[in-house]
Amino acid sequence: MGVPMVDPIAVFFRVLHIFSAITLLGGVLAWRFAAIPAESALADETRAKQANATAVAWRPWLVFAVVGLIVSGIWNFLHKTGLTPVYHAIFGIKVLLALHVFAAATLAARPGNARRSRQLTGVVVSGIIVIILSAILRGLTLR
Fold this sequence. Notes:
mainly alpha
């Protein structure tokens, strides 16, 4: 019995996927539950400027995370074999929720957005469900 070979490309795409997910969800969690509450201590005009500055600063990270998740997700999916109909059903739900995460996070990053807090809360909820579904899918492919 030899040592199994590790595919460096597979490792790269897995790390890219995990890092992108951490960046997206971690950034949204910090924004929603730290930055937005902290802004409430500011005067209205300052609060709006700070909120818009945060949105502008977040956008490049959001784009990186979304592109990283899409590219690595496609690569990871195309290199899996023996997937069952149950896997495909759960994966479909995961993709739909991920699309919601991408869309709501993108909308939240627009300057002057009065619904930002609500949209970020939706991203957090959907993002956590995506992670749970990912753990379920991981278990389905290890058997």
